[in-house]
Amino acid sequence: MQYLYYPGCSLEGTAKEYDQATRALLQRLEVRLTEVEDWTCCGASAAPGISRLLALALAGRNLALAERTKIKADLLVPCSACYLNLKKTVETLRADPQAMRDTNEVLAEEGLSISGKIRVRHLLDVLATDLGPSAIAGKVAFSLKDLVVAPYYGCQCLRPYPVFDDPQNPTSMEGLIRATGAEVLSWSMGPRCCGASHMTTHMDQGMQLSGAILAAARDADVIATVCPMCQLNLEGFQKQIARRTGQGEAKTVLYLPQLLGIALGIPPKELGLALNLAVTEAFKKRIAMDEDLSVMAAQHPETIRQPPGKGVGGDEPISQRRSMGAPSH
Amino acid sequence: MLRENYHAVIIGAGIAGIRSALDLAETGSDVLLIDRAAHPGGLLSRLDAQFPTDGCGMCKMLPLLERDSAEATCLRKGFFHERIDFLPATELSHLEGGPGRFAVRLKQTLQGVDPQLCIGCGACETVCPVDMPDDFNSGLSRSKAIHRVVPHAVVGAYVIDAAACTRCGACVPICPTGAIDLAFDRRKEFSILVVDDELSVRDSLKEWLLNEGFMNVQTAESGAEALTLLEQSDVKLLLIDVKMPGMDGVDLLKQAKADHPDRVAVMMTAYATVDTAVEAMKSGALDYLIKPFDPQAMLAMVNRVFQATVSVQERQVTAGAVILAGGMTLFDPGEGVNPYGYGTHPHVITSLAFERVLSGCGPSQGRLVRPADGKPLQRIAWLQCVGSRDCQISADFCSRICCMISLKEAVLAKNKSNDAVETTIFYTDMRTFGKSFEPYRRQAEEERGVNLVRARVHSVTASPESGDPLLRYAGLDGRMHEAEVDLVVLAAGFRPSPETEALAELTQAERNAWGFFQPQPFAAACSSAEGIYLAGACTEPVEINAALIQASAAALEAGRTLRRSGSQLALAEGPAAKGVAPDAPPRILAAICTCHGCLSETRNTEKLISGLTRDPAVVQVLFVDQLCGADGWGPLEAAIKDVAPNRLLVAACHPLRHSTHRRALSRRTGLPENLMTIVDMKIEPTEPQADTTARSLRTALGEHVLSASLQMGVAFLKHTDPTAPEREQVQRKALVIGGGTAGMHAALAIADMGYGVDLVEKENRLGGNLAWLHHTLEGHAVKPLLDQLDDRVIQHPKITLHLEHEVVNAVGRVGDFRTTVQNAQGRTEILRHGVTILATGGLEAETTAYGYGTHRAIVTQQALERQIGSGEADAAAWDVVAMIQCVGSREPSRDYCSRVCCPTAIKHALYLKEKNPRVQIYILYRDVMMTGFSESYYTEARRAGVVFIPYRPQQLPGVETSPDGIVTLSVRDPIAEVDLKIEANLLVLATGVVPRLPAKLAAFYGATLDSGGFFQEADSKWRPVDGLREGVFACGLALAPQTITEAAAAGQAAAQRALRILCHESLSAGHPTAAVRHSLCVLCQRCIDACPYGARSVDLEQRRLVVDPAMCQGCGACAAVCLNGAAILNHHGAGQMLAMIDAAVE
Amino acid sequence: MQTVTMEVKNEDVADAIRTLLGRILALDEIDAVMVPGRLPGSRSVMPLLIHDPDQLDNSDPLSPAFALNAAKQVCRLTRTATPKRVAAVLRPCEIRAFIELVKLKQGLREQVIIIGSDCPGAYPNKIFDALTREGDDSGADHGYVKRPSVDESSLSKACRACEHPMPTGADLAVCLWGVDTGREVMVDAQTDSGREILDRLGLKATPLPDQRAAAVETVVAERTRFRDSMFAETAAATDSLEKLDHYFAHCVNCYNCRTACPVCYCRQCVFETNLFDHDPLQYLSWTRRKGMIKMPTDTIFYHLTRLAHMSTACVGCGQCSNACPNDIDVMSLFRTVAHRTQAAFDYQAGRDVAERPPLSEFREHEFADTAGLHWRKEA
Amino acid sequence: MSTPATRHASATDTREANPLAIVQEMMRACIQCGTCSASCPNASAMDLTPRHLWRLVQLGRMEKIFQSHTFTLCSACYYCSLRCPRGLNPSDAMAEFKQIAARGRMRQYGDTTHFCRDFVDNVRRNGRLQEMTLMTAYFMHMRRPTLPLRFASLGWKLQSKAKVSLPTLRRGAPKLEALFRKVEEMEGDGT
User: Which partner for A119 in A74, B317, B792, C279 could form a disulfide, CB atoms 3.0-4.6 Å apart?
Assistant: First the structure.
């Protein structure tokens, strides 16, 4: 299995560990990643706030770079914001020939062109659909038995494009988490909004939304995320939220590939666990992580086997939003 | 028993199918009615009550004339008509030929229980181990794998759910009549070949299959080996691995199918080669399984193939026409986003399921309790537009009937709880678009306290405290609201029924964007395919009366095709049976069913014989085994020919089930049907004996009671008057009053069937409102329709046109009316006719509201349409156009929605937008009544930038005019919370429709008007174009506000109803009918008031009371109120009843 | 004009009424007056149809007895429309019976001017016969009028239990109670027709005296008390099939009660039709089952049928009891049952000609249910 | 309050003539059912509900719309788009407002527009986002001395984890200059 890889700016900065863990996990799962050469910012949510064409061009540039590589593979994106931006750009360009022409005109400045044929895939989509829980279960070296994990999806990998999961009641993480031996927290906050950039622009509102998620994860040991923005909001503002509301305790927040990586016995250091802002002592103890984060102290004796009778594949992708019909006149 | 040649085959036995079938049968056609379900009645079989009566009236569809041709019983129990054969669980599998000569191939799935043998005793149900959700009750109750589909159905009562059945076999020995066949032997023989290069796959598959009872399984490790085996044995099913060395699976498939195309093959594939497997389906593979697969899934598929092979019975018939009446199916709210937690939240159900909650045979026997936990219901919320009016799920249409269903359900819930239950309906537009809908809504809201909240609920979650459903919605006040209720009812919309796609392919009938069948412009009952007609909700979700009107129109079109193709309709005049002289002494043959020997074992038959023959009227007593089956009716027929009785007494179980037999027996022996009676023996199974699992049968009646029942039967027969009912001659000609859309359609329909028509029109031209209508919402030009109708009417040899004539007087009754018409010069003429169709039309209502008449920029929608038609409307000159809806409508003074105004306003708005995209259009409305597929034009109008502003009748928009030609409207926008001033170049008022049916004219024919001045139907739902007086019909705007297409359909429906009468030389209502003993009658006339059918009157000349035999329905109300003993009901006379009572207490 | 007075001379109230009748008969539009009276040389009181004003001397408008309920006789006079009308002096119970018959289209109300008076009650036929035989002829008349509540116990039981002694529904009501009948009687118009007649008689208008209401109330209260105790006794006497058998033990199927009943309007009773000409085998079969049956059969059945048919129309005139040769108290049972059946339909026989008899029509909401049709009847 | 109805945008209107045109185009089919409002996680913090805002869009009430901060509170969670029964995309329409505000340099939306502008400038220069540089620029623009303090602890934490590199000055021409310039040229806009 092979994918083109677009890490995005956050994964070079605040979400370095997401990048590290993704690479380490996929390597362990024998998936080859080819990073798109000379990639630049996708435009994030800011570019559309300035100009539509600029947004298309910034994202389009990266898509064009990906298309230019010789490798015929899907473009894997771990950052939900980048994923949505790139995905939306592809969809827009496919649907709007004028936008396609304009974008190509801009990209021509850099000698690039785009066809819109490339498929943009979220990391969670690849993990849940292409690899599936069985790929994890078969390689578990360190069972996370008794650990309760709250799967937190955030918005932009689910909406507005319901590609691989139910945008309102998502479940794609659950099989993966169970494959590690961990339990899945039953909650309804998985697809709720964390407040996104409100943390910068409307801090009160941002804290309220993130606070609600943290509060609902009370009974979980870990919150698993698949988006740098969500991760930062949940781990970086935990203390401020607790101070403000007068309740709430420190909660371990991990990127999903980190959690899966631990179960596969990948050394914490390779998963960038030291870079996380919220990893509780209890959690460290649970996974028997030693101080220098390099070794797992003991291998768990149990091996988890694939449940019998289940095929590879996982859930059917949820069908795309269908086009609306109108009666013949 | 079934015929081979039919005039028509009707696919779908819901109410529309039944209506079409009855209409055709009543005009002399032989009809085959099929349904994929095991019972007739369709969706309506699950709805106990309909508004506005809040009761059921399905039986009102039954014939009122020649009633003896059908069984006058509850249609929920069964459907019997001498010209209609019903095949349950049957689908169309092939169709060729054309109008007049269709070859129809049908596929009937046997349900495991022989309906001829099943007596509905229920013994099987007690031993069946499979507990599954009951489909009929929407899964709110449990059933067994072998179960009754419809709790109250009499025929074909039990079926086996093949998918759920475990084939444990427990039910087979316990069935006392041996009606159950699980096909074990055929399963053993069923030949399966597994082809896979992996030994482990071959072995495990074989083992699983053997365990499932498939004993004839062979395996092959390569394509070549498989081909050898195929030559040697008759393999029915192949399971083929896609990827094999040498010949691969697809090659094998092709070769295996080459000489045996009916061989079934299923491909087995790894995930990687799914594409190949999909490809293989093009080469004839049925399906594919992805390895590693679940044994259960594999076995389910094999079972399915097996069932399809063994339990399907093919049948070929011919038909002159085909009517598609497959109806619609409920949207599954669990589909897609499912924000309301359907299927996950226990207290969220569909409106159809709530119908079951209300039903006496529902999960809680009609008690108003929550299905999941039995908690008494105190707060119920209905959520409208679930699966409708939702572009996200390709449903840019309105399902039309959900608003009224919810209102009705809320009222029924109120009824059940003595108004204690709190009911709230969350809606977007309350679409009360029919004649009686608005008053019903008003009553529900104002008198019954049903809360109507204009809001779309966003989500349903469980309350953290109680677990009860918690609704979240944004109120009109701009605030978020939460409401906790006990039960959420989702007013789920509708989708085409599942077989629509296949039917479209087989019949070549086109479908629309949403998968419903597409009718032809102005011809709701015509499909795009010749000879294929459309009835009911298969074209659009519709309410009962629209479905029935369209069904009658479809019957008319089918009849027309039959006539055109030279089909002879075989209508027998009068009863086939020869009469019995009134004074002939009764000779009764008593035939008693021994029902699989049960009677002879447990009864002293000698005693029964001596008891019966003590009365010399009983000439012979005959014991016959299985009178319910062909085995029993043979000996009985022979005995009748031998003994020549003039009365027949039968004792058997379930009298209704024998109605078809009885009719056939009457035809073959000449013994009139009304001189046969069937006594219910109430057969039930015994408890199994200790040494066996088998049950036998016994009658539930004690010896004395059985004897008394038989004696009652004898008493009944002895006193039955053998005189045949009176018949009245028919003037086989029609009078149609009004030459608009509906009138012309009605006239042409009747004339095309060969009967003369007098068409009377007040004006000097035909066409009515067609003259000024320019185009329809759908964009069809109106002029060509008018020209075509005009030509056809004028040139039709059977139509006599009376232009500029008015009806000045009329007398008579069904079959013989005399109408005096007068022309402008005052010359009169008397027309004689057997039926009358009132198609006097309607007009745009007049108004003085909003300054109408004071300013030339204030016009009505009709005026705008005229301007558009004449080219006067200069859209380019207008910057702003405003429209006000519901002017003078939906108010207590005119309490109905005119239904055409919203489509007209939007039609005009779209037209103006097209001509001048810059024109701003504001439509001020109360509820946007864009029902059905017209909803998409509402969306289109919104998309085109038309601004819709809601107003409340309590706060009407203000209008001011200025001399510069500008009309200023002031209205408050409730959402934006701003007062708007709209300066418009044109203000268009939608004043609605008023009927033009003078009460005096209606009274000539015994018809009455409703509160809106429209023709009062006999029943707004079930007899939508019939007057209370038989022989008088209405259509078009005189009947109700209608579109052109609806008026055309109503015209045809009225014609079809009229043809039932015209096709007879003489008329009879059938048995029983009322009569008058003049010697006793003192003319107190209580019976006239009591007669609900208007069949009784005083002949003033003769000073005596007369009964119209064609109109009397034999209800007996007259006999009940008559104190003189003068009003009597033939066949239920006082002497007869007294004799039966004496026999009963003997 | 609403109310007028008629002067009473010599304390002869009846004569004052005769004067009134004379004036009415003198009107153009009135052909004849029907009034109780005695044929010369006879003791029995019968309705007389009088055309010649001189014959009014034979009339006895306040007769203390009525051998038959005259309602059916009024029907004979009003079956179809005639050019002129008749006037009829009727007792309140006769008026009520006539109104019931009008509802059943047996007579035309507008064809008759009804003159009624406060009814002190009447003697049973047998007692009246005895009284007149004793020669106390005139005394029976005058005493009865002057002392309306005297000798209550000898009045007919039906009259003593009659809580409607006022001539409700009459065009003209002759008022005796609360009026000084030594000097005058008052005539009150109760309908438009009544008022028209009064207008043309040229009599002195006067209001009704205040004390009248109290006087009426006293009478009604007394009779209601009697009625209720009669109901209780009768109910107790007939509360089982055995007791009912006993109650009607003397019945000989003479059907006199049916003939005497004013509201039994059938041309021929169903019990006189061949429906009850049973097969001899039938009698034998009945006695075979029961061991013994009373002959004639169908007596209880007959009375029950009459109750079923007529109790909602029963006006309580008591003629059934009057007519019984074997002194069966038919009236008490009929009234007891009728009281309940009429209450069940919120109906009162003879109260109002516009009121529809129970069970004769469907109310709109019953209609759809019963007949399966939704039909708005013309208003 | 009573004002004459504003003229509506139509397809031919240019963006300059009617800045609302594009949002109107997007939201015309709205039937004011309120599903968006009820689904919005930020609705409680908004001065106008989304439904109210769309109605103002349909009625063309510019002044009321741009008195409101509603669209700045959209966190682009797309719940409303998921559920809109008309199949509209209110989330994207909100983003469109942000653009209008940014283009129009509307002072009242300083927080939002400055953030976008600083972000894009950062990208223009560096190609990939320099998070620390962005925040510094943003805080400077906002000219609110207390603002940086709210992020101080987080900033320190991030730095201690070496997650944010110190601002490095990129030499030479901005990385994406050509691309940006072309866009500006094509849009004929000084942005």
Answer: A74
Chains D and B make contact, 3+ CB pairs within 8 Å? yes
The secondary element (H helix, E strand) that includes residue B734 is strand B733-737
- Is A313 touching B (CB cutoff 8 A)? yes
User: The domain at A133-286 falls in which architecture?
Assistant: 3-Layer(aba) Sandwich (3.40)
The closest of C272, C231, C251, C243 to C324, measured between CA atoms, is C251
Q: Judging by beta carbons within 10 Å of its beta carbon (0-12, 13-18, 19+), is residue B505 exposed, middle or buried?
A: exposed
Q: If DSSP codes are grouped into helix, strand and coil, which group holds residue B409?
A: helix
- Strand arrangement, sheet containing B647-652: B618-624, B588-593, B647-652, B676-680
Contact (CB, 8 A) for B535 and B1035: no
Note whether B touches C: 3 CB pairs or more under 8 A. yes
What ranges do the domains of chain A cover? 2-122, 133-286
Complex prediction ipTM: 0.79
For residue A315, the model assigns a pLDDT of 38
What b-and-e string marks burial along B527-547, b requiring 16 or more CB atoms within 10 Å of the CB? Answer: bbbebbbbbbbbbbbbbbbbb
b/e string for B81-112 if b means 16 or more Cβ within 10 A?
A: bbbbbbbbbbbbbebeeebbebebebbbbbbb
In whole angstroms, how far apart are CA B843 and each of A293, B1020, B1050? 87, 22, 17
Q: Nearest residue on chain B to D24, judged by CA atoms? A: B945
| D39 interaction partners in chain B (CB closer than 8 Å) | 458-459
How far is the C-alpha of A329 from the C-alpha of B702, rounded, in Å? 69
Show me where the domains of chain C are located. Answer: 3-225, 237-365
Q: What is the pTM of this model?
A: 0.85
- Within chain B, all domains assigned CATH 3.40.50.2300 are found at 185-306
Check CB contact of A116 with chain D, cutoff 8 Å: no
HSE at residue B307, side-chain half, CA atoms within 13 A, is: 19
Question: To the nearest whole angstrom, how far is the Cα of B427 from the nearest Cα of chain D?
Answer: 9
CATH architecture label of B330-490: 3-Layer(bba) Sandwich (3.50)
pLDDT for B302-329, tens place per residue?
Answer: 888 888 888 888 999 999 999 999 999 9
CATH of region B845-992, choose from 3.40.630.30, 3.30.70.920, 1.10.4100.10, 3.50.50.60: 3.50.50.60
Q: Does A216 touch chain D (CB under 8 A)?
A: no
**CB-CB neighbours of A74 under 10 Å:** 17
Give contacts of D81 with chain A, Cβ < 8 Å.
Answer: 159-160
What is the spatial distance between Cα B835 and Cα B731, in angstroms, rounded to a whole number?
8
pLDDT beyond 80 at B571 = no
Confidence of residue B670 (pLDDT cuts 50, 70, 90): confident
What is the rounded distance in angstroms from the CA atom of residue A96 to the CA atom of residue D177? 26
Average pLDDT over residues B756-770: 96
> Which of B1123, B1134, B1138 shows the shortest C-beta gap to C266?
B1123
Neighbours of A189 (CB within 10 A): 20
* Residues in D 43-102 with any Cβ partner in A closer than 8 A: 45, 72-73, 75-79, 81-82, 87, 89, 91, 95, 98-99, 101-102
Q: What is the C-alpha separation between C125 and C66, in angstroms, rounded?
A: 7
Considering only the top CATH level, what class is B588-718?
Answer: alpha beta
Task: Tell me how far apart the alpha carbons of residues A186 and A150 are, in angstroms, rounded to a whole number.
Answer: 8
Task: Give start-end residues of each CATH 3.50.50.60 domain in chain B.
Answer: 5-106+316-327+497-564, 330-490, 729-841+996-1067, 845-992
How far is residue A98's CA from residue B21's CA, in Å, rounded to a whole number? 56
Domain A2-122 has CATH 1.20.1050.140: yes
Give CATH superfamily name and number for B5-106+316-327+497-564: FAD/NAD(P)-binding domain (3.50.50.60)
Among the partner-chain residues D1, D11, D86, the one whose CB lies closest to the CB of B979 is D1
